[in-house]
Design the sequence.
């Protein structure tokens, strides 16, 4: 990687990859999944998914805490299955299940 280049690549299409990366990926099939569509649908239609809270997380206040800030002293909600987010940024297991189902429906036909 060139000096000063980011070690994280965000690509919109395979043509955005540097030539050397494309050579290593020859024969690979690259698929893109839009995870924001199912998350937005869960926010707009929470009862369709059995959710009650989609705007704040289960951990702590639900607005600030994330990852390591969600410790036993910050508290969690009584029923995480009713929440879209566990903390302020990470989806709950239930939300990941919806995203995984969406991914299978969208990506399996392309393989």
Sequence:
């Amino acid at each position: 990687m060139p000096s000063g280049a980011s070690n994280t690549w965000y690509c919109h299409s395979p043509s955005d990859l540097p030539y050397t990366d494309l050579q290593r990926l020859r024969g690979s099939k690259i698929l893109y999944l839009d995870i924001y569509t199912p998350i937005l649908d869960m926010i707009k239609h929470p009862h369709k998914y059995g959710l009650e809270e989609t705007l704040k997380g289960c951990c702590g206040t639900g607005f600030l805490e994330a990852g390591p800030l969600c410790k036993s002293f910050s508290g969690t909600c009584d029923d995480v299955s009713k929440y879209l987010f566990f903390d302020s940024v990470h989806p709950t297991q239930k939300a990941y299940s919806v995203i995984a189902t969406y991914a299978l429906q969208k990506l399996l036909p392309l393989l």
